Amino acid sequence: MADQAHTRNFSIIAHIDHGKSTLADRLIQACGMVSDREFQDQLLDNMYLERERGITIKSVAITLPYKAQDGETYQLNLLDTPGHVDFSYEVSRSLASCEGVLLVVDASQGVEAQTLANLYLALEHDLEVVPVINKIDLISADVEAARQQITDDLGLDGDAAIACSAKEGTNIEAVLEAVVNELPPPEGDPAAPLKAVIFDAAYDPYRGTVIYIRVKEGIIAAGEQIRFMHGGAEYKVEEVGLFGVKREPAEELSAGQVGYIFAGVKTVADTNIGDTITHVKRPAAEPLPGFREAKPVVFSSIYPVATDDYPELADALAKLKLNDASLTYTKDTSQALGFGFRCGFLGLLHLEVVQERLEREFGLSLILTTPSVRYIIHMIDGDVEEIENPAYYPDPSSIDFCEEPFVRASIMMPERYIGAVMPLCLDRRGENTQMHYPSPGRVELSVDMPLAEVIYDFYDKLKTVTQGYGSFDYDPVGYRATDLVKLDILVNGERVDALSMLVHTDGARPRALHAVNKLKDSIPRQQFKIAIQGAIGSKIIARSNVNAFRKDVTSKCYGGDVSRKRKLLEKQKAGKKRMKLVGNVPIPQRAFLAVLQTDTDK
After folding, report:
1. H or E segment and range at residue 15
2. Which CATH number belongs to the domain containing residue 441 in this structure?
3. Domain span at residue 314?
């Protein structure tokens, strides 16, 4: 049985790029968990996408044995968490398994948007917070200014913050001592009926579902019969264990410990993140409170390029959902693209990661519709509807007014780019602009913007105008009234449902022109002229034509009256007109992809 007094469960939280994963590496090395020969940077970022992008996407757990200065050996359960706002749901689930956190602040950047957001998450879970100032080895590091910001902005004791360098390994011992001395041990009675909360899961192709649990009360061991309290399913535990650099089997997990179990759970749908596990013979009276449901903010429909791949896409999404509880999806259908799924994401980076994982881990070729956000429609009769799919947009004559989600964008960049970034924000309907100078030469621009403008191509344009130096983060700030219209794309007079989008009135014509021009270049020529139009209701606001193939019918007329040529041309024209009425325009897959691409994508 684990000694609770010598166990600590803690998490590392911070803004993006403040050094969480590097600090986790140093803690692992300091505890002797991995030899220098086996060590690699960002040891816990074991997903290929995390290594390629240099970011943390999934929270990862590891158990560290640490011999403290008081001579006692402690078991430290560390959960490394993501910094991006898109993955804040991962952070909240990890924090529910901890008693304390290390809040990392960059010595040169200071306190930033996600530092504050993650601190609030930790305080919501009533956790002990130890501030750590990282990157003191940088030339631009200003430790005293960071201490002052921790005191003023976060309300913590900045003077007690531990200054360290995760890259150089400076003062890592002090961080470990703070974990042991300042964070509380876990509570919970090992003799009580079993209560363990599922905080994550993964799919193992050979053994089924790996379930990550935090034991709150009681003891769980191999061979025992367990029940999922929400789902009601019963299983026999095959193996329990702790997280080392690899999974390490153990005899049992007792109250206060974090670990994994295999219980022969074959189907992905049987595991619900936030469910409570208890014994069949001696069940707990009531389940633990689960996690707050993640609310998706960006929506897109995903279709397989080959319609035969639909069952594979359904299976892949189910497996991905197990590992990513914040992904939501429902069945969807389109006249142009067949069967697919309407998916909800926590942000654009989340959408990109899901798309890339589906394509690379499951070998699927996919088409995504234009990302949209959830709008609130207030009807004249007093009803309120929430819609994110343009197909469900009600009749405009029955709408009183619409509301759209706004975000507070925080843009960090060198001072010289402010002149290029300000017009970009104003073009995207930015308001309440504020400037803050965290250090000489660097500026932080805070601006309220509609989320719909951010998800389209804002980040690409920002990277272009700041030559890659601009960093961007955002937090939701609620809904505000907007002037919304539904933009339809017509090909040969037929509406293409997969290309419909909800846009602000001011941006309707530029978006329509972009779509019709991209389609004009992608749709192959037919025997008749094809009109591609952008329309709001019955009003056409943009048009482009794909010209017909034309045979030179006048080639055999040389000399003679001009009316002979005219007669042949009129006959051809009438034939083309007849053909247009019955002609069906096949839209190739690349045309849908072309419309989704922005001008900055090459």
Report:
1. none
2. 3.30.70.240
3. 298-369
d(CA 294, CA 519): 36
Q: Do residues 510 and 528 touch, judged by C-beta distance below 8 A?
A: no
Residue the block writes with tokens 């995760």:
166
Looking at the fold, whether 398 and 379 belong to one and the same domain comes out as yes
CA-to-CA dists, residue 504 to 92, 100, 363, 509, 520, angstroms: 33, 44, 36, 10, 24
Rounded Cα gap, residues 86 and 474, in angstroms: 9
- Please indicate, yes or no, if residue 292 is contained in any of the structural domains: no
Residues with Cβ within 8 Å of 378's Cβ and at least 6 positions away in sequence, in order, are 384, 399, 400, 401, 402, 403
Quote the tokens at residue 316: 């892949």
- 292 sits in which H/E element: none
Query: Which one is predicted more confidently, 599 or 133?
Result: 133
Answer yes or no: do 143 and 31 share one domain.
yes
The arithmetic mean of pLDDT across residues 5-14, rounded, is: 84
Q: How far is CA 333 from the centre of its chain?
A: 24
Q: Which helix (H) or strand (E) holds 357?
A: helix 348-361
Token pair recorded at residue 547: 């010209």
**pLDDT, tens only, 295-352:** 777 888 888 887 788 889 988 888 887 667 678 888 888 776 778 888 888 777 778 7
59, 37 in Cβ contact below 8 A? no
Last residue of a domain, one of 328, 347, 369: 369
Is pLDDT above 80 for 469? no
Q: For 74, how many CA atoms within 13 A lie in the half-sphere containing its CB?
A: 26
* Dihedral angle sign, alpha carbons of residues 355, 361, 362, 363: positive
Decide: helix, strand or coil at residue 19.
Answer: coil
CATH number at residue 521: 3.30.70.2570
Is residue 187 a part of any domain in this protein?
A: no
- Which of 429, 447, 482 represents a domain boundary (last residue)? 482
Per the structure block, which two tokens stand in for 36? 């220098």
Helix (H) or strand (E) holding 321: helix 310-323
Cβ atoms < 10 Å from Cβ of 545: 12
Q: Is residue 602 part of a domain?
A: no
The span from the CA of 387 to the CA of 240, in Å, is 44
| Cα 92 from Cα 80, distance rounded (Å) | 12
Q: Is 67 helix (H, G, I), strand (E, B) or coil?
A: strand
pTM of the model: 0.64
| Helices and strands (H, E) in the chain, number of each type | 14, 32
Bridge partners (DSSP) listed for residue 9: 77
CA 601/CA 457 separation, integer angstroms: 9
pLDDT at 88: 60
How crowded is residue 47: how many other Cβ atoms within 10 Å of its Cβ? 17
What is the average per-residue pLDDT within 339-366? 82
SS (H, E, C) 512-537: HHHHHHHHHHHCCCCCCCEEEEEEEC
Residue 146 lies in a domain: yes
225 versus 575: which is more confidently predicted? 225
Q: Work out how many domains the chain is built from and give that number.
A: 5
Q: Does 417 score more than 70 pLDDT? A: yes
